[in-house]
Amino acid sequence: MMTIWNVAWKDLVRSARSVFILVFALVLPLLTTGVFFAAFGGLSSGDESPSIPAPRVLVVNLDSSGEAAIALENVLTGDELSNVLDAARESDPAPARLAVDTGGAAVAVIIPLGFSAGIGDPESAAGVEVYQDPAQTVGPAIVRSILEQALDGFAGGWVVIKASGGALASRSVMMDGATAARISALYTEWAPAQLAAGAGGLAVESTAGAKRESVDFMARMISAIMAMMLVFYCFFTGTASAQSILTEQEEGTLPRLFTMPVRRSQILGGKMLSVFLTLAVQLIVLLAVSALVFGIRWGDSLSVVLAVIGTGTLSASFAIFITSFLKNTKQAGMVYGVVVNLVGWIGISRLFAEIIPGLSKYSAYTDTVSLVSPQGWAARIWQESMAGTPVWFTLAGMLALSLVLFGIGVFKFNRRFSE
Amino acid sequence: MEQAIQVQDLRKAFGAIPAVDGVSFSVGCGEIFSLLGPNGAGKTTTISMLAGLLRPDSGDAALLGNSVTRQAARARAVLGVVPQDIALYMDLSARENLSFWGKMYTLRGKALNRRVDEVLEVIGLADRQKERVGTFSGGMKRRVNIGVALLHKPPVVIMDEPTVGIDPQSRRHILDAVKELRGHGMTVLYTTHYMEEAEELSDRVAVMDKGKIIACGTNAELIRMVGQDTRIELALNAESGRVIDPWRSLEGIRGVTAEDGRITVLAADSNAVLPRLFESAASRGVRITSLEIREPNLEAVFLHLTGRALRD
After folding, report:
1. Which residue of chain B comes nearest to A3, CA vs CA?
2. Of A78, A330, A418, B101, whose Cβ has the fewest other Cβ atoms within 10 Å?
């Protein structure tokens, strides 16, 4: 056992000194994910601040005694929208407009006198003035979106009167002016209260919900990209490590080992152990760094451990398998470049559905096809771990596949080195 | 003398081509024995079978009584091999290399560290031990390559052309180190195509050609095969026929031949004969334009046995 460990340790030291392996094992997967992370901004949870700075908004309420106006003013300047709008109250429209003109604010929202009284009156044109800096687009768009939803809610009063009138007419009862006024009054009392409570249908809730959904998608996308990189480069690292068998054969160190009082199976066992340990180190570093830097949640501890075992074992076995068919490092360069790449892309294709929304309808197809490659199984176990679903079945499949690949590889190597 | 290496009718063919064709020899304990022959003579194939890297088609060999085919592990345990090509980890330091290879020879702990220190002194690289082997000169790499084979103090060491392609200083260092091994009671099987190395180092030499041993013995025994005469090779500014017959009758001359414009004179004592040759040529108006004296050596033995020069 000591001989196996000594061979493995020597290979680990050499791998740690290999710039090529370090770049492929650690730098490229993190760099690729980092590029996407930087391009799409922060994510990881639905509670984080948006990457776009909150626009400065000045709210002028000229209908300071009206309930609806007060409710709208409170919504715009309240805490719930503080991560979206940097809003402040202003008493006079003129300085508010001046602030927009001079760049002190992106938008001035001016609630006119009589706004509250007019929202329930279908004949009235209860409107809110949005005075904006024409050079700015995002901030005013956010404000408009919120206002439109709020005003739609208020306009509901007029719809209620119309609907009520229609219902009465269907029973051959004509709505008189007093009834209409009463319905309008009731709605006018009810709507601001709903607005102030931040009820559904108004801007506050729906806007925040859309943002959270967007952030969740981003988190899923970055996680999927990192999973792809993890799987893809793990298999490259495995083959690069296993290539040391061919390298040592060419450099004469393997034949020299064969002249020593150690069994060939010990030498081969040491090389395989080093491949597995290299992969384990790579996986642990990638998981830890990606969790800390990108906030990726890989799953519960047990699932992650099982996924590491499955991925490491399958990568190492695949590396031994494919290397056993190669005669020299020249062949290895070509085969690793083409076969591992091709099989790798097939395997990680199942993760594309999580990155490109339009592809989700093909996920059943890619999920099936990807399993023809070992990388597909590895991608699947990480998907399951991140989703919190059981990984046992996939792990069993990976270990079974590992056994087959490893057995073929060892058989071929034993035949090659038996002479 | 107890035999350290016994080789009996060893044969190995690659396809239809016999690389080693019925080789037999034995090497006594503490002896330095050289296999001398040109490239492709079968030297490396022979020692590859002794080292357990190749399985013989037939025949067998034993190292201190351990058959390389039936008791391979025991045979390998008493053997240190210096391969022809440098077989080291270039990205590890000299000390890391020696430590790793030492572990493969089952050395551990303090014994390993002590032995690594000793070997670093022997190969003269104690002060460079922490540097990566990849940064060493060819000669320094060769020395580490040899050091690896000495780690476990093997009673039998096989060295396959260990001085190929290195500078004279490193070559001298290696040859001196090989001689020291004899002082430690080690048996050395040394392959080379440098006649001078075989002459300097060896107690006995086996001359190999085309997979066979064509002669075996001490330097003196082999040279006696071609006689003790010195060969004097000359070129003239005139037809050789003007001097050949007169020279054959001169005192001390054993024979004169002419081929391709060059004349070869065999003589027991070149110092005594040379003045007579110059005088005879001058009296006939002929001038000697070049002259080379060849003392009897292994090169002459190989030439005598194969009709070819050793480096052909």
Report:
1. B104
2. A418
* B positions 127-156 inside 8 Å of A (CB): 148
- Percent of chain B with pLDDT strictly greater than 70: 97
Residue B107 and residue B211 in one domain: yes
Q: Among partner residues A253, A255, A263, which is closest to B89 by beta-carbon distance?
A: A253
Q: Is the Cβ–Cβ distance between A80 and A155 less than 8 Å?
A: no
Of B24-28, B142-146, B237-241, the one with minimum mean pLDDT is: B237-241
The answer on A145 and A29 residing in a single domain is: no
Question: Is B85 part of the contact surface with chain A (CB cutoff 8 Å)?
Answer: yes
Q: B91 contacts in A (CB within 8 Å)? A: 14, 17-18
Integer CA distances (angstroms), A14 to A175, A187, A256, B102, in order: 90, 77, 18, 17
Q: How close B96 comes to chain A (CA, Å)?
A: 9
Considering the domain architecture, whether residues A322 and A239 belong to the same structural domain is answered as: yes
What confidence score (pLDDT) does residue B20 get?
Answer: 92
Residues of chain A scoring pLDDT < 50: 43-51, 198-210
Same domain? B237 vs B220: no
The type of residue at B171 is R
Range of the domain at A142: 56-210
ipTM exceeds 0.90, yes or no: no
Please spell the DSSP secondary structure of B266-298, one letter per residue. Answer: EES-HHHHHHHHHHHHHHTT--EEEEEEE-S-H
* Boundary of a domain, candidates A162, A191, A210: A210
Question: Within this chain, do residues A179 and A269 fall inside the same structural domain, yes or no?
Answer: no
For residues A290 and A394, membership in a common domain is answered with yes
Cβ of residue A13 closer than 8 Å to a chain B Cβ: yes
Neighbours of B18 (CB within 10 A): 17
Residues of A in contact with B134 (CB under 8 A): none
